[in-house]
Amino acid sequence: MTRHVLSMVLRNVPGALARVVVLFSSRGVDVESLSLDPTERGDVSRMDVVVGLPAGRSPDQLVKQLSRLVDVKSVVAVADSARNQIGA
Amino acid sequence: MDTVTGASSLVRALEDAGCEVIFGIPGGTILPAYDPLLDSVNIRHVLVRHEQGAGHAASGYAQATGRVGVCVATSGPGATNLVTPLADAYMDSVPIVAITGQVNRSMIGTDAFQEADIRSISLPITKHAFQVTEPEDIPAVIAEAFALAAGGRPGPVLVDIPKDVLAATTTYTPAPPVPTPRVTPAANEIRRAAGLIASSRRPVFYVGGGVVRAGAAAELRALAERTGIPVVTTLMARGAFPDSHRQHLGMPGMHGTVPAVAALQQSDLLIALGTRFDDRVTGVLKLFAPNAAVIHADIDPAEISKNRKADVPIIGDCRDVLVSLNAAVRQAPVLTSWWAYLDGLRDRFPLGYDWPDDGTLSPQHVIERIGTLVGPEAIYTAGVGQHQMWAAQFIGYERPGSFINSGGLGTMGFAVPAAMGAQCGVPDRAVWAIDGDGCFQMTNQELVTCALEGIPIKVAVINNGNLGMVRQWQNLFYRGRYSNTGLSTHDRVPDFVALAEALGCVGLRCAEKSEVDDVIMRAMEVRDRPVVIDFVVGEDAQVWPMVAAGTGNDEIMTVRGIKPLFDEDL
Ligand SMILES: Cc1ncc(C[n+]2csc(CCOP(=O)(O)OP(=O)(O)O)c2C)c(N)n1
Ligand SMILES: [Mg+2]
């Protein structure tokens, strides 16, 4: 497992969080921590997630899959801490 | 701005979106929408017999016309019956909009009668799902749903509408057009691709369903002919390049032709267009096309480098990509020895089949004759199984969209409702469903719909008495222990001719080679009703060639145990 931090901006609409979480579950992504915070804008929220990916799987694919979601306004892998082994 | 009910607003929004046909079944919560539907002059409602039929019909309609297909269901069981077609359309990137009734807003979350949280259920199998909570949002949501379904990589979109939203009084304001951004293929990647193409020695166009969705067949043909590069078309792309074209090597993959599979395996440059390196095409990924550089063009960035790393990634609609490539490629590669190799394979390993020893009818012969007599202007649909693979192999497709089948999900029961939907979209073309005796028993109730609504599809039931594809695997991998694959359809349970008549269709039967042409011609003459032909065929015919699951493509077998690419030094 390698650990990655994703930073997202989500539309504040019902079901947006569910869609993101279901994507993690469908694609076999391990969620270590997840935080959702309001923003000053009010119509969007900020979401930070720490995910674990099987060794050799890059976060790029996940970022692209998250980008496809209508309610995800933006997503970036902030700190690609690929050397940061989970468990080991 | 007119004062209307939410339901009228819905119907007007659908009309404004260009919807001309809806497949559906009414029920409690969607009932308000059915009232204004009665007065719509632009929209025809086709009353199906099962919501699964409505969903696949919407998909068949969409694939035959290139427009968005629409299906409607009530809340609860009506909505959950749409799950399979939504998943099917998601996997095959088919633009459909599903509209479901929902319990009143105040009842949501109370386990009300016929409440199902379809929006959550559909999360992993839709591009997006809306729940409308304010009646005045209806026009904008419908416009956005259509734009989302059709835009970018197409797919299914759900719109869930509570009953009281439909019943409420609101105003109708036509939604402004929804902008659909179109990415321009990056010029530097196009240049790199053109460079690789010019210097390649063993290139191949690996063409997927994205080329069909993009309407890029003409552009593909232009580039293929200018460069002389061979073409293979996947199950979802049959017809994207004419089968009669000499540069076409056929379908690659688990049941692909030897030349098509070898072209990918031996290639030094895959030009992958609107395709996703599915495991049914690649076989064991590590062993797939080991020496090839990869140009991968797709409208969905998430597909690029998902399974196989692309050397040249191109994000864009396949038509835009092909137009750009056509302009950028100045020099055709030298392919003399490549074609000599491929032509040699074509001569030595043509697609073919053996007649059964027991004197029974050959299913491949039946399907081949349908293709020849009905011709390339028709639309063919298929279920899932052996008959599907034979329909992909033995019918010659010349036009994109002329073969409609369930590629990604592999949904048994797809053929009949998809044919119904396709026929509604293109009433002037003949539509033939090539179905299995197993698949047919999953969705044949839609023939009642076809009979009553004047949708004269033809259904060829390839009756091999078995869940044939599963039986083939049992024969090959489970020592011929046929566990639960016999269907008793050779004992006429059910009797498909009698069943067809009971469903309001013409029922015909054929078990002799000498009668095959005749029965097809007789079916073609019937124009006022659907026709079902029970083709009683042998149970032992198998689909060849085959790359067994879990093996590399080099181990393709032309018949059991014979591996031409593996055993010989070609
Ligand atoms: C809904 C569904 N259930 C089960 C399967 C697994 N399956 C794949 S092919 C097949 C047999 C299909 O039988 P039939 O329609 O008679 O086609 P044949 O292979 O005999 O041509 C089965 C059961 C499936 N693809 N879809
Ligand atoms: Mg069968």
Automatic annotation (TrEMBL), chain A:
PROSITE patterns: ACT. It catalyses: 2 pyruvate + H(+) = (2S)-2-acetolactate + CO2. InterPro entries: Acetalactate_synth_ssu (IPR004789), ACT-like_dom_sf (IPR045865), ACT_dom (IPR002912), AHAS_small-like_ACT (IPR054480). The keyword Cytoplasm does not apply. Transmembrane segments: none annotated. Residues 5-80 form the ACT domain. Keywords: Amino-acid biosynthesis, Branched-chain amino acid biosynthesis, Transferase. Pathway: Amino-acid biosynthesis; L-isoleucine biosynthesis; L-isoleucine from 2-oxobutanoate: step 1/4; Amino-acid biosynthesis; L-valine biosynthesis; L-valine from pyruvate: step 1/4. Its EC number is 2.2.1.6. One of its GO terms (molecular function) is acetolactate synthase activity. Catalyzes the conversion of 2 pyruvate molecules into acetolactate in the first common step of the biosynthetic pathway of the branched-amino acids such as leucine, isoleucine, and valine. Belongs to the acetolactate synthase small subunit family. Dimer of large and small chains. This is Acetolactate synthase small subunit. It comes from Lentzea indica.
Automatic annotation (TrEMBL), chain B:
The keyword ATP-binding does not apply. It comes from the Bacteria. Gene3D superfamilies: 3.40.50.970, TPP-binding domain (3.40.50.1220). Its EC number is 2.2.1.6. InterPro entries: Acetolactate_synth_lsu (IPR012846), AHAS_TPP (IPR039368), DHS-like_NAD/FAD-binding_dom (IPR029035), THDP-binding (IPR029061), Thiamin_PyroP_enz_cen_dom (IPR012000), Thiamin_PyroP_enz_TPP-bd_dom (IPR012001), TPP-bd_CS (IPR000399), TPP_enz (IPR045229). SUPFAM superfamilies: DHS-like NAD/FAD-binding domain (SSF52467), Thiamin diphosphate-binding fold (THDP-binding) (SSF52518). It is an enzyme of class 2 (transferase). Pathway: Amino-acid biosynthesis; L-isoleucine biosynthesis; L-isoleucine from 2-oxobutanoate: step 1/4; Amino-acid biosynthesis; L-valine biosynthesis; L-valine from pyruvate: step 1/4. Pfam families: TPP_enzyme_C, TPP_enzyme_M, TPP_enzyme_N. It catalyses: 2 pyruvate + H(+) = (2S)-2-acetolactate + CO2. Residues 190-324 form the Thiamine pyrophosphate enzyme central domain. CDD domains: TPP_AHAS, TPP_PYR_POX_like. PANTHER family: ACETOLACTATE SYNTHASE CATALYTIC SUBUNIT, MITOCHONDRIAL, THIAMINE PYROPHOSPHATE ENZYMES. This is Acetolactate synthase. The lineage of its organism: Bacteria, Bacillati, Actinomycetota, Actinomycetes, Pseudonocardiales.
